[in-house]
Structure formats: C-alpha cells, structure tokens
Design goal:
Mean pLDDT: 87
Low-confidence stretches: 1-38, 525-532
CATH architecture of the largest domain: 3-Layer(aba) Sandwich
Number of domains: 5
Strand content: 15-25%
CATH topology of the largest domain: Rossmann fold
Number of helices: 22
CATH class of the largest domain: Alpha Beta
Strand order of the largest sheet: 4-5-6-3-9-10-11
Distance between the termini: 62 Å
Helix content: 25-40%
C-alpha cells in the first residue's frame, strides 16, 4: 500500500507512484481539495496480538516500511494490540456510589456493558482506531492468536474503535513463512468465529460478575480486601484440602519378611501390623530354609508410545523434569512459537489431523537430524493422527524451520522446552515398548511370598526417550530377572530379613500434580457424554497459579528443581469462609462445558448469562459471616498509624491504616526505596512505624555509588506517608 499526499504549498510535491508498482494495489478514487491531492490505493489492515507476531506477518506480506505503531507496504498495513487494549469498565463507571464497597449495593449486574481503554495502552489503541478509519483501508484482517482470548482481544478493539468495515479471520497453528502465506491466501469469514467470540465474551463478563460481587461481599463481611475468582478459588481450595489431609494423616508402621532366593530374586510376605508376628514368621523361614514354588505366571505386555504434547502435558513434564513453573513453560513456548520453531502452544489437543499425515515423516527425520539422532528409527504416523480429537489447534510440534535454526544460540529455558517437544514427537511415532512380566508365588512356613520380575523384549520408543532425555530422566531402576521355575519345585533361601515401613500421607502439590488436578477436576461428577474440561483451560491454568502466588494465597517451597505449592495462612482462611459453590471445582467445570457448547453453537449466550445472574444474586442474598471466622480472618497488625493512632495491618500491596478515613499507607512497591536500591519489606516497615526511622546500609546512588543513610518517616497534612534522608557524616 502507498498513500501519497501533496501537502500545502510550502512542502515540495512528492511524486505519485505508478499503481503498477504494487501487485495488489489499484486506484480507487482521487481525493482532492485545497490542501491535498493524491491517489488512494486500497489497503488491508492486519491486526496482530503483539509486535513480534506483527513483524513476522509484515515480513511475509512485504510491509517493510516502519511507521509509529504499524508497518506498511505492498497494499498492507500491519499493526498490533498489546494484550487487552480494551477492558471491562470498573463498577464506579456505572455508578459513582460503587467507589465505596458496601454489601447494600450488591449485586452489581450491568444491563449495558461498558468498556474502557487503559491509559497504558491508549496510544496503541488510538493508532489502531486511526488505521481502521483511514479512507484507503477497505477491510480488516483479525490476525490475533487463534483462540478464544485472541478473538475477544480483536473484537473489543474493533467495536470500541467504532469500525464498520468488513473483516476476515487469519487462523494459524504455525508461524512458519509457508504457513503464514497459506493462511493469508485462505482467510476465513469472520462469521465462522462469532460463536467463539460469544463464548469469550460470556466468560469475561461472567468472571467479572463473580469476581466483583464475591470479592466485595467477602471483603465487607470480614473487613479486609479479599480476592475471589471462579477459577482461582477452587484451585486454592484443592491445595487447602490436600494440606488438611496431610496434616490429619497418622502414619502406621507395618512389617514384612523378605526372602532372597538362591536362584535370584526376592520374595516378600504380606504386611503385618504387629512386629512380633513378622518376627515369628522370620524365625520359621530361617529354620525352614527353602520355599516351594506354587505358581509361575508369565504375561507379555506392551506400553504404547506417549501421545504428543498439549500445553498442559508439556507444562507438567517441564515442571517434573526441569523445575519450570507453568508460566515459565508457557512463556518459553510462546517465544519459540514467535521464532517459528514450534507450532501454536495454547492447544488442548494431543493429535494431528489427517491432512498432516504426509508431512510428518519428513518433519520427524528433520527433527532427528537436528538433535543428532543418526541411526534409523521407525515412523508410525497413524499413531498421532486423529482429526476427531483435534479442536481449534493440533498437538504441539517442532517446525521445519527448527531443523535449520541455531539451537545453541537459544536461551537455555527455550532450548530445553524445544528439546522436550522434539523428543515427544520422536517417541510418539515410535514402536511399543514390549516386556514380559513374571510373577512368582512361593510358600514358606505356610505363608505366601511373591516376587515380580521383568524382561524387556523390545525397547521400542523408550530407547528414543533415553537417548533424547537420558540426563533428565535420571538413573532408571533396573528390571529384576526371576529364574525359570517349575511349579512345586523347591528353591533355597539365601537370606531372610525383617523390613519395617510405614504408610505415607498424600503428597504436597507440585505444579505438575496441581495442573493434572485442575485438568481432571470434577470428572466423576460431570454427566455422561459431555466434554470434560476440568478447571480453566490450558491457556489460563498457568496464570491462575501465578495469580494465587502473587496475591499471597499460595507459596512455593523447595529446591530449584522440585518446589511444592503450599497454601498460606491467608489462603487457608479464605477457603474456610468461602461457600461450597464458590470453591467447588464442579461449578467452574460446568462453566467450561457450557462455554464450549456456546463455541459450538449448542447453547445461547443469553441462557448462560441468565444462569450467572441468578447464581450471583443468590450468593449475595444468602451469604452470611461464618461464626468464629473473624479471628481466623484477622489481619496481622504490625504497628500504629503515625497519623491517626489506629492499627496498621499488612495487606497484599502494603501496610494500611485500618481507619478507612485515614490515607496513611506504606506501599511495598515503594518508589522512594527503589531509588535507593532497596525494598520496603516487613522489617523496614516495622522499624519505621516503631521508631519513625530506619538505618539502611549500602544505598545506591544514580551514579552507582554506595552509601549509608537513615530514612525518616513523617506524615503530610492529608495523612499520606513521606520520606526524607539523613546522610551519615553530615553529607
């Protein structure tokens, strides 16, 4: 696209280009007045979700001229959003009375929804709005991420900008140039994604209604700010229930007798609750000195290759093997996608479509070469093909571009995630792992002893797994080989010993196991025949966990590789006062099922929203403060307000005066302390409130020099906190 103007007479006229210079451009009309004379060429506006993706599109489309907030060229304008440019308005936009939180004003149920453009994103929104209304732009292409959220991001911008021009949809699973060209050559009608948009809109508005009303309701009931969400709260509840089960667990000791057979293998008895019973059996076995073979059973078994990754499965393995958080894995995968090294990461499918079958052998061979897998290996493509199990996007794959990329130049995190995805592809098309499992049942001292052995018949895909991930998998347990034995034959006992053990409590949640719990939550309670979505979606589960950590409801504990997720006292308290319907996984799983039905056109959005309205109204109407919960929910007092003398309590973002009329607060994210190269933590806050001052060592100046100083706290006339520095040595 070229758009040329002859401006006022003070500026020299620019030469109007020949329309033949542009393959897709043609003269539409002449635009003339006293100040402007030019030719307008029809252009298409492409709206991506973020700048990096827009750059990839622009390169393929030939839009190489950089402008402020967009690129242009070859009859295309390519611009971008920056996440959610347009967001739901807060309650006070609907009515000024909602500035103050009051149960009497609940529920807040907007009849006409309002949206705002935040100050931080206004510049880019204004650019998009101007581009959409440019007279040379005849149509728009929605090129945001191909999913529910991407659809919502674009449509809200399109509507808020007041754009009426026709738009089409770019739907991609890969950022390779060939895939981008193919996608732009076969754009989808926007109407095909209306149902997807409706589902996204319902999800956003329902979350707003539950979050706003529930957060205000419980914050007012318990006199402190509490963040409540229909996904976040059930996930928190799962961790609280798990920790309660661990705390209530009483380990029980048990005893077994283990017989080492002279011909190989170890046979074990049943468990005994009493040590004396096990010791008596041990004595008898030592005296008898041999076992009689009662049964020898051999079964050949096979373990099918693992399925390809969806996002959740990738996040689980990355946490288990690499120690990555779910959010870190998503961030690494998104970066790899934008670098055209993997396909679209936010997928819940673990299979490929039938039309991809022909290209998979070549991709597998290229992937093997990229990771120095030189020996020939089988490729069973049909194992990964099932179009019926592919939703919006197919399973995660490395791309052909990956084979020619400099993998060593990638950041370590990205390289490791790419390694996992590539290894999974090579394993998924492999052969079954086959083995023979032997169970030996013997009798000694009239008690039954059993032993299990295993012989590998064919390594199959596990050989590839060891080659690709050997170091990450760690040392594998060697298979026990039992001797061939005939029934009723006898075998000498080389050794007999007493072994003591105890029952184990449930394990703390790791990110791996919590993701699995979110994925499978409420499966048993859902009706037969419906899609079971668990809590949240693959794209949102990582963000949910991170939000719980950021708000102080969960904390990570452990070493670098293995961290567990534990509820804080604040998290336990919140779950304690939550009604069952809010903390139940069944509610959010039901939501996800209905949202999927809306996506498929099987449910009207109005029906869903009516249900949410009713649920929120009943929640506000029927919820009362739980007896004795005040003590549980009481905020930690750390000092006395220097302005009004009321208690100062710690909350998520700082230390606040409990007097609602007082404006005193010590913000955790404090700009004054940041300039000193310091952080305002609990220790510093305590000293300031107690003494009005705190001495800090090794403060850092703007020029990088270090010094010691004392920070003094005082209050302004309106109660706000203010700081000053007292330098040591009178400097």
């Amino acid at each position: 696209m070229r758009f040329l103007w002859r401006m006022n007479r003070k500026k020299p006229a620019r030469k109007i280009p020949n329309p033949s210079d542009f393959k897709a451009a043609f003269c539409r009309r002449t635009y003339c007045n006293q100040k402007q004379i030019g030719v307008i060429f029809i252009a298409k506006l492409v709206v991506a979700e973020k700048p990096s993706v827009a750059m990839s599109y622009a390169k393929v489309l030939g839009a190489t001229s950089r402008r402020d907030g967009y690129l242009e060229g070859n009859s295309y304008l390519v611009s971008w959003c920056v996440g959610h440019l347009v967001e739901l308005a807060p309650p006070n936009v609907y009515d000024a009375k909602y500035v103050k939180w009051s149960i009497a004003d609940l529920p807040i149920l907007p009849e006409r929804w309002q949206y705002l453009v935040s100050a931080s994103t206004k510049k880019q929104f204004d650019i998009l709005q101007k581009l959409m209304h440019r007279p040379d732009v005849d149509s728009v292409i929605c090129a945001t991420d191909a999913g529910r959220e991407g659809e919502l991001i674009f449509r809200l911008v399109y509507q808020q900008a007041g754009c009426k021009k026709p738009f089409s949809r770019l739907w991609l699973s890969s950022m390779e140039e060939t895939a981008i060209r193919e996608g732009f050559a076969h754009l989808k009608p926007s109407t095909e994604y209306d149902a997807l948009y409706n589902a996204a809109l319902c999800r956003e508005r329902a979350d707003w209604m539950v979050g706003i009303n529930a957060s205000r309701l419980f914050s007012c009931l318990y006199n402190q700010p509490l963040a409540v969400g229909r996904v976040m709260t059930p996930v928190l509840a799962m961790t609280v229930v798990r920790e309660a089960a661990i705390a209530a667990f009483t380990p029980e000791k048990f005893y077994t007798v283990a017989l080492t057979l002279a011909d190989g293998g170890t046979a074990s008895s049943k468990r005994f609750a009493q040590k004396a019973d096990a010791e008596l059996l041990l004595s008898k076995c030592r005296k008898e000195g041999r076992v009689t073979v009662q049964k020898m059973e051999r079964k050949e078994k096979s373990e099918s290759p693992p399925q390809l990754y969806d996002l959740t499965a990738l996040q689980r393995d990355a946490n288990r093997l690499l120690g990555f958080t779910a959010q870190q894995t998503l961030d690494y995968a998104q970066s790899l996608y934008e670098k055209r090294l993997i396909t679209y990461p936010r997928t819940d499918s673990r299979f490929l479509t039938e039309d991809m079958a022909a290209s998979i052998p070549g991709l597998v061979m290229d992937t093997g070469k990229a990771f120095a897998v030189e020996e020939p290996f089988p490729i069973h493509v049909q194992q990964v093909i099932n179009g019926n199990k592919v939703t919006d996007h197919h399973a995660l794959l490395p791309t052909k571009s990956m084979a020619n990329a400099d993998l060593a130049a990638l950041p370590a995190g990205e390289r490791n995630v790419l390694w996992l995805i590539s290894a999974r592809l090579l394993c998924a098309v492999g052969e079954p792992h086959c083995y023979a499992e032997t169970t030996l049942t013997t009798i000694c001292a009239e008690e039954e002893f059993s032993a299990k052995g295993k012989v590998v018949l064919s390594d199959g895909w596990k050989a590839m797994e060891r080659k690709m991930l050997g170091e990450l998998l760690g040392k594998q347990k060697e298979a026990v080989v039992l001797p061939d034995a005939q029934e009723q034959s006898q075998c000498s006992v080389a050794d007999a010993e007493l072994k003591e053990g105890q029952t184990s409590p449930p394990k703390h949640f790791t990110e791996d196991t919590l993701l699995h719990a979110m994925e499978t939550a409420s499966v048993d309670s859902m009706p037969e025949g419906v899609e079971r979505q668990g809590i949240g979606t693959p794209a949102t589960r990582a963000a949910t966990i991170e939000k719980l950590v950021q708000k102080g409801f969960l904390e990570r504990k452990g070493n670098k590789k293995t961290k567990v997720l534990l509820p804080t006292d604040k998290g336990k308290a919140l779950v304690t006062v939550m009604p069952e319907e809010i903390q139940s996984p069944e509610m959010t799983a039901d939501w996800e099922t209905k949202l999927l039905q809306i996506e498929r056109g099987e449910m009207e959005p109005s029906e869903f929203m009516t249900e949410i309205n009713t649920m929120v109204t009943e929640l506000v109407k029927n919820t009362e403060m739980k007896k004795g919960a005040n003590a549980l929910m009481k905020s930690k007092i750390i000092g006395v307000c220097p302005n009004c003398g009321k208690p100062v309590v710690e909350r998520e973002k700082g230390w606040f005066c409990e007097n609602r009329e007082c404006r005193f607060v010590l913000w955790k994210d404090n700009a004054f302390f940041k300039r000193l190269g310091k952080r305002l933590d609990a220790h510093v806050a305590d000293k300031l409130l107690r003494d009005g001052r705190v001495r800090l060592k090794d403060c850092r100046s703007a020029k990088g020099k270090t010094y010691n100083a004392t920070v003094l706290l005082f209050c302004e006339a309106d109660g706000r906190s203010k700081f000053s520095l007292e330098f040591e040595g009178g400097c």
